[in-house]
Each structure stands twice: as structure tokens, then as C-alpha cells.
Amino acid sequence: MPLLCARGVSFSYRDRRVLEDVSFTLDAGEVLGLVGPNGSGKTTLIRCLDRLLDPEGAVLLDGRDTRSMSRPEIARTVAYVPQNGGISSSATVFETVLMGWRPHLRWSVSEEDKQKVSEALSLLGIGDFASRRADRLSGGERQRVLIARALVQDARLLLLDEPTSALDMRNQIEVMALLARLAEDRRLAVVAAIHDLNLAARYCHRIMMLKEGRVLGEGAPSSLLTGGMMRAVYGIEAVVKDEMGVPYVVPLRPSDDGDTMEVS
Questions:
Q1: Which residue has the higher pLDDT, 142 or 87?
Q2: How far apart are CA 47 and CA 264, in angstroms?
Q3: Is the CB of residue 103 less than 8 Å from the CB of residue 180?
Q4: How far is it, in rounded angstroms, from Cα 112 to Cα 94?
Q5: Which residues, in sequence order, are bridge partners of residue 65?
Q6: What is the pLDDT of residues 37-80, one digit of tens each?
Q7: How far apart are the first and last CA of the chain?
Q8: Exposure pattern of 201-220 as b/e (b: 16+ CB <10 Å)?
Q9: Tens digit of pLDDT for each residue in 122-155?
Q10: Helix (H, G, I), strand (E, B) or coil at 231
């Protein structure tokens, strides 16, 4: 049984349809990259998977419909890292990560709770930052704090909205490599909305290509990252090369007809 199953997920903001009939499954240990232009529905889909929005269709976790689950139950299975992670201007790194343990906390913080946070900080390589204010870290360090906060929930599904945005090239690679390693080592399922197609191709087992709320393709990066798909999804002409078995997209120019749906 897949860890995550989305069946016909659709969503509208008032009279504007932003997701239409999205279906897929995801197993433990897999990383799925959501790619597509701005406004294609990536963030909305992630929020639907976490039940922060109430979509049409069904979202199942371990075969259980999330509509039958309470918010604390969902929080013990799903961890969501939004684009702007809501780091308090005065909280320390330790305090920020401790908030991720909130679904499990009792009335007071125990030594066991503190140990759980310390282990997450060590795993992410930020143990030395525990007493520092989280809002004074670099972009890459802050992203690690947010991932640590998600991991400390003991959640099995990680949802990340553009985890590499505003990071330099080195930190982008480190964050994506970290997510891939965590998925494999801890048997997590990871869904990440990401703009950089080449990072997605390298670190995601599968990608889902969205445009105007619809899925235009879903599968291995090598099968989806083609010149025709770049034209259909992004309205650009591009060359797709192979670098050590991984597709690499080189954008060239806007296509003459950016609205074409031809994907051959």
C-alpha cells in the first residue's frame, strides 16, 4: 500500500479553478518533485495534501482518508515546510525545532523531548546553532532548521514548498541531497515543489509536471524532460542533454507558440 494516495484532487478559490483531477501515489523512500510555471497549482496541491485546504477528491495516508483524521493525527504523519517558514524573530534554533514536536508534547517539556530535538539538530548538522537566534542564520542554515522542525514530528510524509528558493547554488544542492538521503535512510515520502528542473532531475525519483492546475505528465525525469514538454509546459525552446545518466535542460528562447499542448 502506498504511503500517500491522491485521487481526483481538485480545488477552486471561489470561482477560479486552480487544480483539476490530480491523482498519484507515493511510496516511502520516494521523492516526488512538483514542477511547472508560476500559478500552475504546486503550492495549492501541497496545501491540499496537508488538508490545510479542503479539496474535492480524496487524500489517503496509509489507506486512511484524511477527512476522517483530526488535525493532530495528520500532524503526526505529515510535516509541511512552507516557502516562508514562520521563524520567530526571537526564538532560538532549539525553540524553533521544538515547536515541530508539538503534536507529541505533554504539558511540560521532558528530557526525552529535548533529546529528540537535539538528535534532529545533529542529523541536520546544526547542533552547534542550538542557542542562536534562528532569524540570524544564513538562508541555507534557516532551511535546515525548518527541515529539522519537520523531522522532529516523526512524520512519515514531508511536504516542502520551494525548499531551495533564495538559496545559493551550493545550498540548493546540499538541501536537495539532504532530502534525498533522508527519504532513503528514514523511509520518508517527500513531495517538493521546485522550480529548478535540473535539481529535480538529479534528486527526485519522479516528477509531476503541472500547468494551469492540470497534470501534463508524471514519471521519471528522463521520460518527461523533453524539448516537447518544455514547449508545452513552459512555452520555451530548450535542449535536453544527458549528463551521467541524468537529463539536463538548457533553455534557449521563448517558443513561437507558448500555448501549444504538443509534447512529442
A1: 142
A2: 32
A3: no
A4: 14
A5: 60
A6: 999 999 999 999 999 999 999 999 999 999 999 988 898 899 99
A7: 33
A8: bbbbbbbbbbbebbbbbbee
A9: 888 888 888 998 888 888 888 888 888 888 888 8
A10: helix
Number of alpha helices (DSSP H) and beta strands (DSSP E) in the chain: 9, 12
- Provide the strand spans (E) within 14-140: 16-26, 31-35, 56-61, 64-65, 78-81
- Give the dihedral of Cα atoms 125, 152, 182, 207; nearest 10 deg: -120
Identify the bridge partners of residue 223 per DSSP, sorted by sequence position.
Answer: none
Q: Give Rg (Cα) of the chain.
A: 19
pLDDT tens-place string over residues 192-251: 999 999 999 999 999 999 999 999 999 999 999 999 999 999 999 999 999 888 999 999
Closest CA to 158 of 179, 176, 178: 179
Report residue 210 CA to chain centroid gap: 14
CA dihedral sign of residues 120, 124, 128, 134: negative
Burial of 150 (0-12, 13-18, 19+ CB in 10 A): buried
* Residue 183, pLDDT score: 95
